[in-house]
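Protein in question reproduced for absentees:

***
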Amino acid sequence: MQYRKFGGTGLTVSRLCLGTMTFGLQTEEAASHAILDKAADAGVNFIDTADVYPLGGTEQLAGRTEEIVGNWLKGKRERFILATKAVGKVGPSSWDQGASRKHLLDAIDASLRRLGTDYVDLYQLHSDDTQTPLDETLEALDTIVRQGKARYIGVSNFLAYRLARALGRADVLRVARFVSVQPRYNLLFRQIERELLPLAQEEQLAVIPYNPLAGGLLTGKHRHDVAPTEGRFTATVGKAGEMYTQRYWHEREFHTIEKLKEIAAQAGKPLTQTALAWVLANPAVTSAIIGASRAEQLTDTLAAADLTLDADLKAKLDEVSMEYRWGDAAR
């Protein structure tokens, strides 16, 4: 496993981060712990979760993933960089969501209780709450940092202009500053290359992209004319299955994947490893978030950390996927 500095901080993290959003719905606790064991044995020291997980779960199930991660971390918390997120709806009240002072101060305490720890290393806004003033959100996060409940703060699913504004307001208010951004990024979604990644590099922000394999589509195992029977494109993950289908399950994407499979085959490399190595090859990327519903699914993705793409192979992948740079999706 390789490691890299976390943006402009003094923190060091593994180049692969284990995402846990399948834990508690697609994957039961014992299997989830097996996945965590395999990632840890490979040198992964960075774990990402969220208070709304598992993916596709109901409000009543929200927080189950954090509980599973917390149970696994008992006795070894100090060995791992732990990240979680808030903003999504986790309860019946109107204030059980968003980035208000009330919700964030409640949410961090609830996450710490479920995770069985006194602090998280990285506390992130899961999405941009445009209904709450940025100053209120930033001051609440600063309180959380000053109380020692989070070491660093970051964002996910933010447009570049909103992140830039948040960084500016933090400087003016002299409060804790965001140190990372977690966007969607893969060969089938490259929009962040235009503005978000240049901003991250200029501001020395760590970039920890999720969906590097497009929900499993970039493994090459799916066919457009055959309905999936498992994974993130099915009804087993509730409305999330619809979201993933809308994102990726299109003829254009499958046509591109065929080209990518051919390029990877010519290079003698599996598409899964090639697609993930392409994400890691971007100099702005700190650590790519990988996930699994079974431990054996990690075999190819873990190997990608040691795969270096030669210039010719990367250029071919860039060219085939160039059209996916254009667009304005927020997440």
